[in-house]
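Protein modeling request. Please complete all fields; requests missing the sequence field cannot be processed.
Requester role: graduate student
Desired output: 3D structure, token encoding
Chains: 1
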Amino acid sequence: MTTPVLCCKNLSKSFLVHGKEITVLHQTEFTIMEGEILLIMGKSGQGKSVLLSLIAGLDKPTSGEFIFRGNSLQSISREQSANLRRTSIGIIFQNLNLIPSWTALENVEAALEGFSCSSKDKHSKSLMLLEQFGLQNRLHHFPTTLSMGEQQRVAIARTLIREPQLILGDEPTGELDEETGEEIVRTLQSYTAHNKTSLLITSHGHFPKQHAARVLHLKDGILQEMTSSP
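Delivered output (230 residues):
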């Protein structure tokens, strides 16, 4: 039996803009199960990135709460939130955030900084993951010498190497051509299935819906069931 990894309960988020309160998310509720790929679609400006930022603990909701692995995240400290991002909740950023002066291998190895494993283990683990992503010939290349698809693979490897229980992806295929995007999706799909990792993707249309177990639609701050894959 699959178990809930993340439950979002009655979540709302508002901002003050020029003295006027703007509500971006309205009483949002959803649950993502262990090993599930959940896709949240919506046009730009509908609150998708805000939602991911709240889940990651980079911002606080106006009301409502998240339950992660049975524990409420409502009152945790910044330090506890940062530790969750380091160990349990991985983020694939839309702008990748690779360090330009580090090689592909160094970018991935850096994600294990502070973990209780030797430099040799960090190196071999990073090497193995990048080879699985087909980057064995690009290990010592800097991000600017890699294609967008290769940079995306490095960014994903950097996230996966920590073995998070939940991965948040903000438009992970948005800057890629269709074929490369499909390859990235298959890589993520294979990883989540093998490791029972949950994957929450937000997209305004580039992510192929057939790879998701469920698709939700975010419009005007309201989240609704859109469709289900067979």
